[in-house]
Amino acid sequence: MPARQPPVYQLTISLVGARPPIWRRVLMDYPSTFLDLHRTIQIAMGWQASHLHLFQLSNGVLIGDPAEDSDGMMDYANEAMVPLHSVLTEEGSKVRYEYDFGDGWEHEIQLEKMLPGDGAGPLPRCTRAVRQCPPEDVGGLPGYEQFLVVMADPSHPDHDDIRKWAGTDRFDSEFVDLEKINERLAKKDQLFSEGPLLSGAGEGDFCGLSPDQMHELLRSPLDCPSVFGGQVDTPTAAQVLESAPVIRMLRVLFEAMGEKGIRLTPKGNLPMQQVRAMIDAAGEAAFFHRYIGSIRSEEAVPRVHLTRILAELAGHTRQVKGRLILKKAVQARIKKGDWLSIYQNILTTALSEFNWAWQDFEEGLDDIQYVGPFGFWLLHCYGDQWRSVPQYLNQMLVAFPPLMKTAHPTPYAGPEDLTAWALKTRMINLYRLLGLVELDPEQPEFQRENDQMIRRTPLFESLFRE
Questions:
Q1: What is the pLDDT of residue 196?
Q2: Does residue 385 carry a pLDDT above 60?
Q3: Which of 71, 204, 242, 419 is deepest in the core (most CB within 10 A)?
Q4: Are residues 41 and 185 in the same domain?
Q5: Pairing between strand 77-78 and 62-64?
Q6: Is 169 within the bounds of a domain?
Q7: Same domain, 422 and 307
Q8: Residues of the domain holding 380
Q9: Nearest 5°: CA angle at 249, between 340 and 430?
C-alpha cells in the first residue's frame, strides 16, 4: 500500500474591503511555506511584487522577508522557513496579508478545506478567480474606485490622462484570465528572485545545489526530482528496513497490540513491560544520551515515547477507552509484510507533522525543522565515509546563517553553540532513530559529541537516489 499523501490546502484569498468582492481560490501542497504563499498571492491576484509585504497572525506575530526589515524593527519570522501547516492548523484558520504599505492592500487568507493529497495535479493552482485585481499604485481602494469611474467616462476631464497612465483604453474589472494565472503559477519560482533564506550564499555553500533545487528540497524532501531523481529501491529498502531503530520498536509494539490493543497506564503511558521490550529491540539507540538511574515510565525513554507518538500522528494507532489500538488497515499491511509503507508513513510524519522542538523543549530555533532536509543532501555528498557530527552541523550553519538569529543566548552558550546543539538534538538524533545515519561502531557510543562519527546507511541510499 502506498504511503499516505499529506493533504492539499484549499485557500481563499480575498481583498479586504473590495465591493464587489475580489477573490481567488487556490490549491497549495502541504509542505508550502509562507514564501510560497506570498508568491502565489502575487500571481493569482495579479500584483507585480514591486512593493513590501507582510503576513500577520491573529496573535500579532509578523511573518515576512527579513531583507525588507533590515533594521530588525519588525522582528519578522522568516517566511521562507515557516510552513503553512504550522499556522493554518484547521479548516477556517485565517491570516492577514498586506501588500504595498502605501496603498495598503489587505488580504484575508482562509483555509477553506484540507483535501486528499492523491491526484491533486500540479500545485499551486488557481481554481476560481473573481474580478480583476486593481492596478498597482492606484491609491488603494478609494483610488481604485475613482479610477473605475474615470476610465468608464470618456467625457471626464481626466479620462485621457488616466488611460495613458493605465496603458490601456479599456479596463474590464470583471474579467480574469484563469488560464494565464495557472500558466504563471506553474513557473512561479522562476518569476521571483530567491528569498532571504537562499540568498547571500556564496558559490558552494549549498554543496552544488542551485537555489531552485534547494527550494524544492526544503519544500518536499521526499519528492524533489531535481535533487533526488531516482525512484526508491524498494527491494533493498525492504531488506535493510530492520536497521531503523524506529521499525524495530514498532514491530515489538504492534505485535504486542495485536487485535485487542494494549491497556495504557492511568497516566496514558505504555506499561513498563512494553517499554522494556522496545528498549531491548532498539538497544542503545533507544536513548538520546546515556541514561543513569532506573526507568519508571515510558516518558523517561524519549525515543520509545517518540516512536509511540509518531505511530499515532501517522494514523497507525489510536486510543480507545484507555487502550492503544492498532488500526485495521495497518494490521492488514503487517499481514502482507508491507513494513516499508508503514516506515514511509512514519518518515513523512516525522518530517512534516511532528514538532522537532519536542526533543529538547528549547525556545526558538524552530526554523531547524524547515532546513533539516538539507541534511539529506549533505549525507548524499559526504555520508559514504565516516565524518564527525560537527562537520555536518558547521555546513548547515554556513548554508543557513539566519538560523543563529533565532537562538536565545545564555551566559554559558552563544547563538552558534546553541544552534549547533539544537541541530544535533533535533536533526541528527531524529535521523538516527529513522535509520538514516549510523554511529561509528569502533568508537564509544556515548563519547564526547565533538568526536562522534556518522555516515549514511544502506536504507538512506535506497530512499534518496540520483
A1: 38
A2: yes
A3: 419
A4: yes
A5: parallel
A6: no
A7: no
A8: 362-463
A9: 80
Q: How many structural domains does the chain have? A: 3
Do 374 and 400 touch, CB atoms closer than 8 A?
yes
Burial of 367 (0-12, 13-18, 19+ CB in 10 A): buried
Q: How far is it, in rounded angstroms, from Cα 355 to Cα 365?
A: 12
Instruction: Count CB neighbours of 400 within 10 A.
Output: 26
**359-372 confidence digits (pLDDT tens):** 876 777 878 888 89
- Distance CA(88)–CA(72), nearest Å, equals 25
Within 8 A by CB and 6+ apart from 181, the residues are 24, 43, 44, 46, 126, 129
Length of the chain in residues, anyone?
A: 466
374 and 335, same structural domain? no
Which three three-digit cell numbers place residue 358? 519536542
Grouping H, G, I as helix, E, B as strand and the rest as coil, residue 432 is: helix
Kindly report the CATH number assigned to the domain that includes residue 110: 3.10.290.30
Q: Is 259 exposed, middle or buried (0-12, 13-18, 19+ CB in 10 A)?
A: exposed
Asked if residue 208 belongs to a domain, the reply is no
Q: Find how far residue 458's CA is from the centre of its chain.
A: 25
Single out the residue in 352, 380, 407 at which a domain terminates: 352
Q: In the listed set 352, 377, 398, which residue is the last one of a domain according to the structure?
A: 352
Asked if the model's pLDDT at residue 1 lies above 50, the reply is: no
